[in-house]
Amino acid sequence: MSEAGGGRGFGSSVPQRAPWSLVAATAALCLVSATSVWTAGASPMSREEKQKLGNQVLEMFDHAYGNYMEHAYPADELMPLTCRGRVRGQEPSRGDVDDALGKFSLTLIDSLDTLVVLNKTKEFEDAVRKVLRDVNLDNDVVVSVFETNIRVLGGLLGGHSLAIMLKEKGEYMQWYNDELLQMAKQLGYKLLPAFNTTSGLPYPRINLKFGIRKPEARTGTETDTCTACAGTLILEFAALSRFTGATIFEEYARKALDFLWEKRQRSSNLVGVTINIHTGDWVRKDSGVGAGIDSYYEYLLKAYVLLGDDSFLERFNTHYDAIMRYISQPPLLLDVHIHKPMLNARTWMDALLAFFPGLQVLKGDIRPAIETHEMLYQVIKKHNFLPEAFTTDFRVHWAQHPLRPEFAESTYFLYKATGDPYYLEVGKTLIENLNKYARVPCGFAAMKDVRTGSHEDRMDSFFLAEMFKYLYLLFADKEDVIFDIEDYIFTTEAHLLPLWLSTTNQRISKKNTTSEYTELDDSNFDWTCPNTQILFPNDPLYAQSIREPLKNVVDKSCPRGIIRVREESFRSGAKPPLRARDFMATNPEHLEILKKMGVSLIHLKDGRVQLVQHAIQAASSIDAEDGLRFMQEMIELSSQQQKEQQLPPRAVQIVSHPFFGRVVLTAGPAQFGLDLSKHKETRGFVASSKPYNGCSELTNPEAVMGKIALIQRGQCMFAEKARNIQNAGAIGGIVIDDNEGSSSDTAPLFQMAGDGKDTDDITIPMLFLFSKEGSIILDAIREYEEVEVLLSDKAKDRDPEMENEEQPSSESDSQNQSAEQIASSSQEVDLVDQESPEESSLNSHPESLSPADTDDAASISPSEQNSNPTENHETTSLDGECTDLDNQLQEQSETEEDSNPNVSWGKKVQPIDSILADWNEDIEAFEMMEKDEL
Ligand code: DMJ
Predict the structure, then answer these.
(1) pLDDT at position 142
(2) Could you tell me whether strands 732-736 and 708-712 are parallel, antiparallel, or unpaired per DSSP bridges?
(3) Please, what is the Cα angle at 667 between 662 and 670, to 5 degrees?
(4) Nearest residue to 919 (alpha-carbon basis) of 860, 859, 868
(5) Order of strands across the sheet with 389-391?
(6) Which terminus of the chain faces fewer neighbouring Cβ atoms within 10 Å, N or C?
(7) How far apart (Å, rounded) are the C-alpha atoms in residues 167 and 178?
């Protein structure tokens, strides 16, 4: 691993208000490696093994990049399951995700500087020529300003930075004459119209050809943008200005940052997730370090590193202090409300926050970085990948994983900071999981569902831009990279910008905000990085000792989200409010509390209990507030429970040649037939039924006998199809959607309901595939005739047996293996079965909705609740999980209360209207969060 020059250790301190000449050194200070000083902890990894892993990363990159170039280029991205390019407009829209695609060969541009880092200079030279020859930036396409900036502008600038470095070295790129920079400038000018708002915050989208204003632009009516979208421009825009001398770009990006800073919530110093670009009002007032905000913080710190402007560090430090005060609940990072920062806004975390430990390393705050990283690693060990969102008790909230690089990024930076070989082992696990679960014959496929191991037909460009860089650099020694990586800063998309830009073209007038800053307490501002030269040699087990207590954090599945509010309440001396999860209808004390909160209990005839709140009947405004929160929690809990009752998705894995288990399709389960979560998976060759709709007795029973029958959806009930194929001797069935082009990428998965009659006679497993996934099997039959699949609740590990289907012994082996797998799956049942399926998944399909599914009369939705905030209803039953924790908290509460005899509830006087208005805002924010896409 490369290290900064001997004298520049972590221990050197940077004088306050560092002079320009020290700016680059400051960056190096924070990133300097401590590898050479590591003496204990995890066993050191030999140079040979590091090289082996580095070579493995190179091979994996070749597989991803090679397949993109062969099968997708010049399209923006590779679709690795169908082995073709994703061309916007030709595939069903995936919503906002598609806004990254501008018909500009996105993956090629995003991969440019990765090629150089991975020492593929020749390929880089070819790639640059292709970009110059083929890429058109003037397409009539509406794209995301944020994505286009970080991926395309960043990609072009990263490419340019390394092209001029190579040219100077004198061997490669001798013909290069700043052509990438010219393209970057052209693109920069195309993005500028987005900033035409009074606030200076950019519109979220722009038409590459027509800009914003013209009617043909089809954009420009948006009112909101995310904080990260408006606050993640400064590195690329400043680099563009400094490379070209055209100051306008840096000016615009600075103006947007200045505006966001002005709009921070002044008492908490936090920012919300979305902001109105015209008024500057916070649209979503929840605040975290993940989706929607993440790279805003990253760019404040990195802008200081790259540009040497103290105001960026001051801002970063102010926000960082707030993050550590409110959001950081080690090892968790939980969203809070900007106005009520002591109140958690969510009970789950998103995968994007995995970059944060890396940023903490750059900041120099190693301990919380180690803690959060370890927590994330525990989640990964449980699910192989980090699910898009997971709850505070580490259950899957959103099950996808689009091969995000953030965790690898933090692993790399933590290794640089600690030199602890533990992080090399972490990297090795990441490599193994990618090869085992995401690698498909035509690239690497995103995980549709980490629980089932099913795939999605997407390989995002950031996988090449970031993942391979961080993994390669993790294992690389200085001589494995052809330039000094520490002369560059990584953008949020891991594009490389040279630190020498800090002293080039500094003609931008920095906004004079000193009057405000001088009022700030300077002791808040750290100007140095921690001294790992002292830290680690003195206590080489330091990092390990921080990780150790977290080793089983994920296995202890008790919810943590509630703890914060309680602890804070104790601290302030107030009695902790009753939380929905703790409520027991048989506890007289709880009933008393309910009464105080204006909540009454109605026992329904069917035995269920309904809660109604009349805030006006509460004992005080504080009690009314607690009551509203209680009802809101009840609604959340109830909807969580409803989700938990739904069946999780299943997997169809193609195991025959040439797939060998590498392609896993997301399938909807059936409410009838063999339950694959309880029984061994079903393996068999597939055969189409005749008639294909399976709505009458099959005319080809000999073809489907002992096989898994393929049937088309439509014209009769699912159960009827199942009976017909079962009668013909099929051992399972796959219903394929008749709606051409449908796909689990774009449509919510559902479970096939029965026909309202007794379906116990159906004993074979039945799964549903959307048309796109179904056609992967149909195409395989056309090409290979014999296609064997595995129907299961979770994809089976690929193993040599799958690739060795000729050998008769493989069957018994694989059965043994299956049995093992079932054993390990069933261990997870308690946790996994209770996991809520991803947001959109698994509603019963209305075509054959079972009567039970419509029985929802007694519950209300959050929106109904919202429409009349003084009267809330909920019916639910609650369990008494995690009593240890509850008891501890209860005990703690009693102790605190005892020592605070003067404590009483409801001391604070706040008019009820303002409380209700406040809570309405929170409820709206909550609803938006639930709808929000990452
Ligand atoms: C990347 O495009 C960038 O890292 C961005 O900041 C957010 N995350 C994606 C990858 O997950």
Answers:
(1) 97
(2) parallel
(3) 145
(4) 868
(5) 348-350, 389-391, 396-398
(6) C
(7) 11
8 Å CB contact between 682 and 790 = yes
CB burial class (10 A; 0-12, 13-18, 19+) of residue 781?
A: middle
The Cβ of residue 739 has, within 10 Å, a number of other Cβ atoms equal to 12
Report the candidate in 415, 404, 312 with the shortest Cα–Cα distance to residue 357.
415
Whether the ω angle into residue 530 lies within 30 degrees of 0, i.e. cis, is no
Distance separating alpha carbons of residues 287 and 276, to the nearest angstrom: 15
899 vs 473 pLDDT, higher one: 473
Q: Could you report the per-residue pLDDT of 630-643, keeping only the tens digit for each?
A: 787 777 677 666 66
DSSP one-letter code for 927 = H
* Residue 620, both tokens: 């005080």
Contact 358, 412 (CB under 8 A): yes
List, in order, residues 6 or more apart from 175 with CB less than 8 Å away: none
Q: Which residues pair with 24 in a beta bridge?
A: none
The encoded tokens of residue 667 equal 């399938």
The arithmetic mean of pLDDT across residues 189-197, rounded, is 97
559 has a pLDDT exceeding 70: no
Q: List, in sequence order, every residue forming a beta bridge with 683; answer none if it has no partner.
A: 790
pLDDT of residue 521: 47
The residue contributing the CA closest to ligand 1 atom 10 is: 404
Q: How many Å apart are CA 429 and CA 442, to the nearest integer?
A: 22
Rounded to the nearest whole angstrom, what is the distance from the C-alpha of residue 436 to the centroid of ligand 1?
23
Mutate to test the pocket of ligand 1, among 352, 401, 467, 495 (most ligand atoms within 8 A of CB): 352
* 572 Cβ neighbours under 8 A, 6+ residues apart: none
pTM confidence score: 0.69
Note the pLDDT tens digit of each residue in 826-883: 222 222 223 333 333 344 453 433 322 322 222 322 232 333 333 333 333 332 233 3
- Backbone torsion region of residue 715, taken as left when φ is above 0, otherwise alpha when ψ lies between -120 and 50, otherwise beta: left
Catalytic machinery residues: 147, 294, 388, 406
The finding on whether 492 has its CB within 6 A of some atom of ligand 1 is yes
- In angstroms and rounded to an integer, the radius of gyration of the C-alpha atoms of the chain is 29
Nearest residue by C-alpha to atom 8 in ligand 1: 352
Q: Greater confidence, 893 or 672?
A: 672
Residue 481 alpha carbon to ligand 1 centre in Å: 24
For residue range 249-261, what is the model confidence (pLDDT) as tens digits?
A: 999 999 999 999 9
Q: Name the packing angle between helices 47-67 and 468-475 (round to 10°).
A: 160
What distance in angstroms lies between residue 150's CA and the mean position of ligand 1's atoms? 8
How far apart (Å, rounded) are the C-alpha atoms in residues 172 and 75? 27
Instruction: State the sign of the Cα–Cα–Cα–Cα dihedral 173, 175, 178, 182.
Output: negative
Length of the chain: 934
Distance 177 CA to ligand 1 centre (A): 30
